[in-house]
Amino acid sequence: MGVEHIVPEGSTLGEPVAPIEPVGGCEELLGPRLQRDLAVAAPPSLVELTRFAGLQSLSALVNFGAYAAVLLWRPGTEPLVALVAASCVAMVVAYVGMRFAVFRGRR
């Protein structure tokens, strides 16, 4: 079972585009607490939570944008290959953002 079986058709290219943001909302609520417990000894703050939510939204936009860009640039690309490539780019954005923006100097 591939990604094309779990996401609806939605792009003008006839390729599946994943509307997964509602699932991401759960991660927005649970993620900061899990990340903090593993990485940070300082007490949490509202500013940190806001940065975390903003970065997660940016990462999601990068993921969807990269996915669409791959499919527009090379229309014959398999959707799963485009998804993996886009996820790798978004993962780098999320890591760099967490390391240097959200949890900077908090050890």
How far apart, in Å, are the first and last alpha carbons?
A: 42 Å
The computed structural class is: mainly alpha
Strand content: under 5%
The average pLDDT score comes to 76
Q: How many helices does DSSP assign? A: 3
Number of strands: 0
Helix proportion:
55-70%
Shape: elongated
Major beta-sheet overview: none
Unreliably modeled segments: 1-8, 11-17
List keywords for this structure.
elongated, mainly alpha, 107 residues
Task: Give an overview of the whole structure.
The protein has helices at 21-39, 46-73, 79-102. It is mainly alpha-helical and 107 residues long. The chain has a domain at 42-107. Helix 1 packs across helix 2 (46-73) and helix 2 (46-73) runs antiparallel to helix 3 (79-102).
List the helices and strands and how they pair.
Elements: H1 21-39, H2 46-73, H3 79-102
